[in-house]
Amino acid sequence: MTRRVLAIGIEPGSADYSAFPQLTPELVRSYIEAQLLRLRDLGYDVTSCLIDLDAAAEAVVIAALRDERFDCIVIGAGLREPKERLLLFEKVLNLVHRLAPQAAICFNTTPADTAEAVQRWIEP
User: Fold this and answer.
1) What are the angstrom distances between the C-alpha of 13 and each of 16, 25, 111?
2) Hey, is 60 helix, strand or coil?
3) What per-residue confidence (pLDDT) applies to 54?
4) pLDDT tens digits, 2-17
5) Tens of pLDDT, residues 52-78
6) Could you tell me which of 68, 64, 122 has the C-alpha nearest to residue 95?
7) I want to staple 25 with a disulfide (CB 3.0 to 4.6 A). Which of 10, 12, 36, 112 is the partner?
8) Taking CA 90 as the corner, what is the angle to CA 84 and CA 93, rounded to the nearest 5 degrees?
């Protein structure tokens, strides 16, 4: 049985890159796509859940979690930093805890190490 992964992160076009001038929405999007492809190549069934920084973010996460059952949920580094996103991060984490209590939760540190984060917690 293929292990299911939900990858939750900030929509690259909504992120603030002022602290990371070397990053662009296009570059971050390419990292995300490469990691999703890598996870699929490793044998995982992956669903991407990119959210904006507005009130609709919670509804998007709820819809993703209610539509399917996941074995692991990876929450992107863009949700944990900067500190102004703390409330959104807490809301997402609590939604995951409430709606997918059986799922392992993991965190990437960059858009380029999502596969490693997932592999720490579940095998394909």
Assistant:
1) 8, 5, 14
2) helix
3) 87
4) 999 999 999 999 888 8
5) 998 899 999 999 999 899 999 999 988
6) 64
7) 12
8) 135
**Dihedral of alpha carbons 22, 81, 107, 101, sign:** negative
Rg, C-alpha atoms of the chain: 14
Look at residue 18 and give its three-state secondary structure: coil
Asked whether the beta carbons of 74 and 7 are under 8 A apart, the reply is yes
- The two structure tokens encoding residue 4: 């299911």
- Phi, psi dihedral angles at 29 (to 5 degrees): -60, -40
81: nearest Cα among 16, 27, 36, 26: 16
- For residue 85, give the amino acid letter: R
Rounded distance between C-alpha atoms, residue 36 and residue 34, angstroms? 6
Say if residues 78 and 15 touch (Cβ distance below 8 Å): yes
The set of long-range contacts for 49-56, using a CB threshold of 8 Å and a minimum separation of 24, is 49/6, 49/7, 49/8, 49/9, 50/8, 50/9, 50/10, 50/11, 50/12, 51/8, 51/9, 51/10, 51/11, 51/92, 52/10, 52/11, 52/14, 53/10, 53/14, 53/85, 53/88
The mean predicted confidence, pLDDT, of the chain is 93
